[in-house]
Amino acid sequence: MLSISIRAQNSLEIIKGYEEKAINYENEERLIEALNYYSVISRQDTLDIGKRAIKKIELLLPKCRELFYNEIKGNWKLKKKFDLDYYSNIKYTDFIKVENNRIFFINSKKIVSEIDLESNPFSYNAIAGFPSIKLEKEIWYFSIRVVNGQKRLRLRKKTDKNGNLIATLDHRGVIINERKTKKALKKEINTYYIKR
Length: 196
What we know:
Residues 1-6 have low confidence and may be disordered. This protein has helices at 2-27, 31-44, 48-72, 178-186; strands at residues 74-80, 95-99, 102-107, 110-116, 123-125, 129-135, 138-147, 150-159, 192-195. β6 (129-135) and β7 (138-147) form a beta hairpin. Helices cover 38% and strands 30% of the residues. It starts with a helix and ends with a strand. By secondary structure, the chain is α+β, with helices and mostly antiparallel strands. The protein has a nine-stranded antiparallel sheet with strand order 4-3-2-1-9-8-7-6-5. It contains four helices and nine strands; from the N terminus they run αααββββββββαβ.
């Protein structure tokens, strides 16, 4: 009985730590990071902290959608393709255009596919976090990263259209030499687009 009590106390301390981080991120206007922490809390706690987290998610989700949409709005050109797009509703194309609450995937000036962000809005997903999009069983995670002054839109498939989990192995974090680790972490391992 004592071990259950200790585990519950440890779990509560972890959740309180997550809530503290979420509040700090929110105060720093880093709303997407705050949303991701609140989402983790809501899945791990069903009591007061979890209920507070759900209320915060309801408040932050529309703001985060708008922030991320404004961040990716515009035209993007494929720079590096590392992933395979088999078993997928989304195919990597030469260009992506984001406008009017839609994401257009374009090859040779022809629209190959599109995502309507009103019917498939960016949301939080336990597998991918925020911002992700679920298309039937398929889950895609989107992110922005700035490397050497270059803004990159990264797309990462988390599950394929059959619902199979897709994992990316990343050895860069286990490199012992600190200088080599920093150099390796600057390299991109995801398919990405650059702003045109």
